Fold this sequence. Notes:
two-stranded parallel sheet, mainly alpha, 136 residues, 5 strands
Amino acid sequence: MIGIDTNVLLRWLVRDQLIGEPALAQSEALSALFDKSEEAFFINEIVFVEIAWVLKQRARLPKTRIAEIIWGLLNLENAVVKDRDILSAALQAYSEFPGDFSDHLIGEINSRNGCRTTMTFDKAASKSSHFTELTR
């Protein structure tokens, strides 16, 4: 199994938009890695959080498109995803409620570890059932 960093997955996601000599070399390296490897690729939770952040903050993609991309990564045939069920539940909450993907992942992890709620000052995240807004 081979671990995959966020920067590799992001370059793979935007490979058709890369320009220039370094981009061509990276694209070829990615093709060789993903197309020819017989090993599975491990994607951890932090990579998903970073991808969601970059797609929102840098690429300015809408939430629906970010969710589609993450669903696609969760379901890659040759990917091993730690805690896929937690990520899937967080992604579902992200699709249904305000807040960032990272907020919903935190809420889901805390819930599955016995927390009745997760206290937050984040008004958007507090709309989810896993959070309670902390007020004065």
